[in-house]
Amino acid sequence: MNNKFYIETPVYKSHKLNKEHNKSVFYKMECYQPTGSFKIRGMEELCRFHINNGKRDFIASSGGNAGYSLGYIGQKMGVDITVIVPKTTSQFMINKMTNLGTQVEVYGDVWDEAHQYALKISEERGAVYVSPFDDPLLWKGHSTLIDECAKQIPQPDKIIVSVGGGGLLCGVLQGIKRNGWHETTVITTETIGAASFYKSYQAKEIVELDEIKTIATSLGAKKVAEKSLQLAYDLNVTPFMMSDNEAIRASLDFLDEYNVWVEPACGAAISVPYFYPQMIKEDETALVIVCGGVNIPIKNITHQAPNN
Ligand SMILES: *Cc1c(COP(=O)(O)O)cnc(C)c1O
């Protein structure tokens, strides 16, 4: 079990943005992970830790990329994974998880009900409850992507990263600290209907959203991890929001640029150099974390996307 399952992903320089805006923009291609997203990094770290401590039973309540990456790692490491999902979860994601041998159980109308039930049965069974974003083991795993970037490119002036519950952001900020990139400014991206980090950052305390309204479902956490806010105040962070439409258009433009489909949750980050290039100055370099995501099939997008 010493070989790792996540891969060291490449960093590409965008020729398109270099030509169009004379900007140096780099993409960290986490969309190339075997599970299509960075989530595999954290899940691998988390599972290794608990397996070393004798655990072989894991329960999560995410029907998205977190549950899928956990299922993938569980299959590779030969441990039991149960994912409790609410009724709203797509058959598409349920199939992806069951194909890996993940036990998927549908419970509750909304995520919170599935989450409460997952907590209850993990306690009863003595299983490990796995949060989709709020666990230091996940942050440690995610932070390895910055260690890789530090070997791949010089320190960037800007890093652009999407925020859902803030697990990826915690990893990125910890990686920035570890590599001495304190001068780098982190631009966080969220769609307007899922701006829990933006609102919390402005309020200087955790703000819980009443509802989530966005196509970028992977960004849909009503409140972010406390740690993401603490770390953000230690470093240079600029929170930013855009429309669902811009996030979708960025995913479609990225498909044209690299022939890879990523969720609008990831399009949110890519929309900054595409549609707000003025946020990166001409002599600056920017690193976009292409976080990926497999839970919105392109077929679901193309019939509702605008023509322009
Ligand atoms: C999970 C996820 C996010 C958000 O990550 P958090 O750790 O919840 O902030 C963004 N994009 C994709 C594709 C994801 O899977």
List keywords for this structure.
308 residues; 2 domains; Rossmann fold; alpha/beta; 10 strands; single chain; four-stranded parallel β-sheet; binds pyridoxal-5'-phosphate
Your description of this structure?
- The chain is α/β, with parallel strands linked by helices and 308 residues long.
- The protein folds into two domains: 11-38 and 137-303, Rossmann fold (3-Layer(aba) Sandwich), CATH 3.40.50; 40-132, Rossmann fold (3-Layer(aba) Sandwich).
- 44% of the residues lie in helices and 17% in strands.
- It has helices at 15-21, 39-52, 65-77, 91-99, 111-125, 136-152, 167-178, 196-203, 226-234, 244-258, 264-275, 298-302; strands at residues 11-13, 24-29, 57-60, 80-85, 103-106, 128-130, 158-162, 185-191, 236-242, 285-290.
- Helix 7 (167-178) links the parallel strand 7 (158-162) and strand 8 (185-191).
- The radius of gyration is 18 Å and the shape is globular.
- It starts with 10 loop residues before the first strand and ends in a 6-residue tail after the last helix.
- The model has no long low-confidence stretch (mean pLDDT 95).
- Residues 37, 39, 65, 133, 162-169, 218-219, 221, 263, 265-266, 291-293 line the site of pyridoxal-5'-phosphate.
